[in-house]
Amino acid sequence: MRELRTASFKKAVNPGAKVMLWSVLAFLRRLFFQSPWFCSLVRVLLGGVFAIAGGAKLAAPRAFARIISAYGFVPEEFLVPVAIGLPAIELLAGLGLLFNIRGSLAVVCALLTCFLFTLGYAIRKNLDVDCGCFSQMEIDAGNGLHAAFLRDLGLIATTFYLIAWRRIREGGRFS
After folding, report:
1. Given phi > 0 = left and psi -120 to 50 = alpha, else beta, which region is 157?
2. pTM above threshold 0.70
């Protein structure tokens, strides 16, 4: 019976469709892993997101300090330095990605990992807090923690893509 299904499947699949599928897959492989302009575009977009997020928080450090305080992680005496330092690191990492400065991708990946753990903690504890990712811009939009968590998952997947692209370009190894 299994042979019959396999044989009927082989007859049902159009050979032209197979060629088209392999052509599309080859194009996507070239686009994602052999095209320097696509990788540069992704890097610049990710850098822009971090530069905008860091700049928005630096513009209103008191509002960001209130958001950080709601999570309950940072002691009161460290709120102001964290409310200024974290966005400054975000801004510098974003600018580093924009200008392709070595190490900035690792900083962005580390920041996203911390953000994902923080958002996961807030979701798990069912905290009624704002994400704080884009400070006042996000509060006005009314985005929730779940949406921010999914967005950060997408952003960290983007950093993994950029890391993989660099590793492949260095000689095809992931050491």
Report:
1. alpha
2. yes
Do residues 134 and 56 lie in contact, with contact meaning Cβ atoms separated by under 8 Å?
A: yes
Measured CA distances, 161 to 39, 66, 89, 147, 166 (Å): 9, 34, 22, 21, 9
Output 111 or 3, whichever has higher pLDDT: 111
Handedness of CA 22, 24, 25, 29 (dihedral sign): positive
Instruction: Compute the distance between CA of residue 108 and CA of residue 58 in angstroms, rounded to an integer.
Output: 17
Is the distance from CB of 142 to CB of 149 less than 8 angstroms? no
* Backbone Cα Rg of the chain: 22
Of how many residues is the chain composed? Answer: 175
Picking from 98, 99, 126, 117, the residue whose alpha carbon sits closest to that of residue 156 is 117
Q: Which pLDDT score, from 0 to 100, does residue 144 have?
A: 84
Mean pLDDT of the chain: 84
Cβ atoms of 116 and 133 within 8 Å: the answer is: no
Residue range 104-139, pLDDT digits in tens: 999 999 999 999 999 999 999 988 888 888 755 555
Count how many Cα atoms sit within 13 Å of the Cα of residue 7 in the half-sphere of its side chain.
Answer: 4
